Amino acid sequence: MYLDREDVLEQLSPALSFISYEKDKILIRDKNRIADIWLKNSKLFCDLCQKDDCPHIHYAMACLELGKLKKK
């Protein structure tokens, strides 16, 4: 599946925003909550939703920092 970075960011903003990359996870702000996105069993996983497919993961897939993630 191909995601166009600008389309994804436009659709999900301003509800979601990139906070930072730290310790093999991407932090995404969702209003007053923070979603930690990391690799689990070679798939992206969202700690906030406890899912491997959610808007936070779609947003993270459009972030350049995605390439820095490594398996835990």
Mind explaining what this structure looks like?
Helices cover 21% and strands 35% of the residues. It has one domain. By secondary structure, the chain is of the alpha+beta class. The protein has a four-stranded antiparallel β-sheet, with helices on one face. Helix 1 runs antiparallel to helix 2 (55-61). It is globular, with a radius of gyration of 11 Å.
Summed up:
The chain is α+β, with helices and mostly antiparallel strands and 72 residues long. The chain contains 2 helices and 4 strands; from the N terminus they run αββββα. It has one domain (5-67).
Mean pLDDT: 85
Taken in chain order, the helices and strands follow as HEEEEH
Count of domains: 1
Given the C-alpha coordinates, what overall shape results?
globular
User: Reading side by side through the largest sheet, how are the strands ordered?
Assistant: 1-2-3-4
What is the subunit organization of this protein?
A: single chain
List the helices and strands and how they pair.
Elements: H1 5-12, E1 16-22, E2 25-30, E3 33-40, E4 43-46, H2 55-61
Antiparallel strand pairs: 1-2, 2-3, 3-4
Main traits of this protein?
72 residues; alpha+beta; four-stranded antiparallel β-sheet; globular
